[in-house]
Design goal:
- By secondary structure, the chain is an alpha/beta fold.
- The protein has 2 domains: 29-71 and 318-357, no CATH class; 76-315, Rossmann fold (3-Layer(aba) Sandwich), CATH 3.40.50.
- It has helices at residues 2-13, 18-28, 91-104, 139-147, 157-168, 198-208, 220-225, 239-249, 266-291, 304-315; strands at residues 31-39, 54-58, 61-63, 65-69, 76-81, 110-121, 124-136, 181-187, 211-217, 294-298, 319-324, 334-341, 349-352, 355-357.
- Strand 8, helix 6 and strand 9 form a beta-alpha-beta unit.
- Helix 3 packs parallel to helix 10 (304-315) and helix 5 packs parallel to helix 6 (198-208).
- The longest helix is centred in the last third of the chain and has 26 residues, at 266-291.
C-alpha cells in the first residue's frame, strides 16, 4: 500500500513532457508513407532534392514530415508476370525483358517474382498465381526463378496482386524500405479467373501504400481475332468475365443476362470485349494514379524492354516522405494527401500518393 501511494503521488507531480505526449499520439497513429517523383517540365527527373523542398498536406492541413528518403535509398519490388492468353507464345520474350529489368535495378534493391501457372484440381485445369521467389537481392536466385516461369490457361490477376500484398509484403518493411515498396505488373489487366474482385484488391493495395506500375500489354486485337465464329474453336470469355461485364455496365438493366459464352453472338462478343478492355484501362490508371505510380502502354511484348527500362529509371529517382497524421482519429475515413514543392523552378512537376484510408477502431 505504501509503494502504491508513493507512486501515485509521484505520478500526480510529474507532468508528461511534450515529447512524451507526441510519443503517446504516435502509438495510436501510423506513419503515412508518401512516395514522390519530381521532374522538370520535359519529364527529366530532379534528384538531390532535400526534405525542405517538400510540404505535405492532409485534407488541406499541413503535416510535419518526420521521415525522408532520397533517391539513392533502395526499393523492394514485386514483379508480376502475366503469362496467360496471348502472351503464351512470347514467354521467352517476357523472361528476357524481366531479366533486363532486374539487371537495371540497383545492387540494394530487392525483388520478388510472381507469375501464373495452371493447376489440375478435381480433374479440371485452373489458373493460379505462384510466388516463384520471395524478396531477394540475389540476382542468381531471381534468374533461376525466371527460368521456372510457365504459362497458364487463365488470368488470376486480382488474386495475384492480393497474394503480393498478403504474402510478399506481409510484414512491416525494414527502415530503409519504408515508403519504398512497389508492384510492377506486366499484364493487359483483364482478369478472367480470380476468386477476388477489383474493389477488394484496390482496398488492400491502398492500405499497404504500395506504388503500382503497369506495363500494359495490348492483347485486344489478338483476342478478338480468335473470339468470333464457331463456339467450340474460338477463344472464350470466362463466366467471371461475363458476370463482371453485366455487373459493371448493366447492374440494374432489365435485359436477359447470359452466363454461357456460346449463347453470345459475334456482335455481343465484340461488345463485351470492348467494354472489358476499357474497364481494365480505367482500373489500371486509377491504381497507378492513386499510388503515385504510372501506366506504360506497349503495343506488344517486343516493346516491353523499353517500358521496363522506364520503370527501373523512375524507381531509381523516387523520394519517400513519411508523416504521422495530425488527425489522430481512428475513424476509417479517406484522407486526401497533397504534396507541394518549395524553392524549385516554375514548371516543375510532381506525382505522389493521393490519399489513404485511416485505421478504424
Amino acid at each position: 500500500m505504501f509503494f502504491s501511494g508513493f507512486s501515485a503521488a509521484l505520478s500526480q507531480d510529474k507532468r508528461p513532457t511534450k515529447s512524451e505526449e507526441d510519443d503517446v499520439i504516435r502509438v495510436d497513429t501510423e506513419l503515412v508513407d508518401v512516395p514522390v517523383v519530381v521532374t522538370d517540365r520535359v519529364g527529366k527527373p530532379l534528384i538531390n532534392l532535400k526534405q525542405s523542398n517538400f510540404t505535405v498536406f492532409e485534407d488541406g492541413k499541413p503535416q510535419e514530415v518526420s521521415d525522408f528518403s532520397a533517391t539513392l535509398a533502395p526499393f523492394e519490388i514485386a514483379l508480376l508476370l502475366d503469362t496467360s492468353g496471348s502472351t503464351r507464345d512470347d514467354l521467352q520474350l517476357i523472361k528476357r525483358s524481366a531479366q533486363n529489368f532486374i539487371n537495371a535495378l540497383r545492387p540494394g534493391d530487392r525483388v520478388s517474382l510472381i507469375a501464373f501457372r495452371t493447376d489440375i484440381k478435381d480433374k479440371r485445369a485452373q489458373a493460379v498465381s505462384e510466388i516463384l521467389s520471395p524478396l531477394t537481392a540475389d540476382r542468381d536466385v531471381l534468374r533461376s526463378s525466371l527460368e521456372r516461369t510457365s504459362t497458364s490457361n487463365g488470368t488470376p490477376y486480382y488474386d495475384g496482386i492480393i497474394k503480393i500484398v498478403e504474402t510478399v509484403f506481409r510484414g512491416e518493411p525494414a527502415p530503409e524500405f519504408r515508403g519504398r515498396r512497389a508492384v510492377v505488373a506486366v499484364t493487359d489487366g483483364d482478369d478472367s479467373t480470380s476468386v477476388s474482385d477489383f474493389d477488394e484488391m484496390r482496398e488492400l493495395l491502398e492500405k499497404a501504400g504500395l506504388l503500382t506500375y503497369f506495363i500494359q500489354v495490348n492483347t485486344r486485337e489478338f483476342f478478338e481475332q480468335n473470339l468470333l465464329g464457331d463456339c467450340q474453336s474460338s477463344v472464350h470469355f470466362s463466366s467471371a468475365q461475363i458476370r463482371r461485364y453485366y455487373r459493371r455496365f448493366y447492374p440494374n438493366a432489365n435485359i436477359e443476362k447470359v452466363s454461357n459464352f456460346c449463347q453470345l453472338g459475334d456482335f455481343e462478343r465484340l461488345a463485351v470485349s470492348k467494354k472489358l478492355y476499357e474497364l481494365a484501362d480505367v482500373e489500371m490508371m486509377a491504381l497507378a494514379k492513386a499510388s503515385g505510380g504510372k501506366v506504360f502502354p506497349v503495343g506488344d511484348l517486343s516493346e516491353a524492354r523499353n517500358a521496363f527500362k522506364s520503370v527501373a529509371d523512375e524507381i531509381g529517382t523516387k523520394y519517400s516522405l513519411g508523416y504521422y497524421s495530425a488527425n489522430a482519429k481512428r475513424d476509417g475515413t479517406y484522407r486526401k494527401i497533397t504534396v507541394q514543392l518549395k524553392g524549385l523552378p516554375a514548371g516543375t512537376l510532381i506525382r505522389a500518393r493521393e490519399g489513404y484510408t485511416a485505421p478504424a477502431r
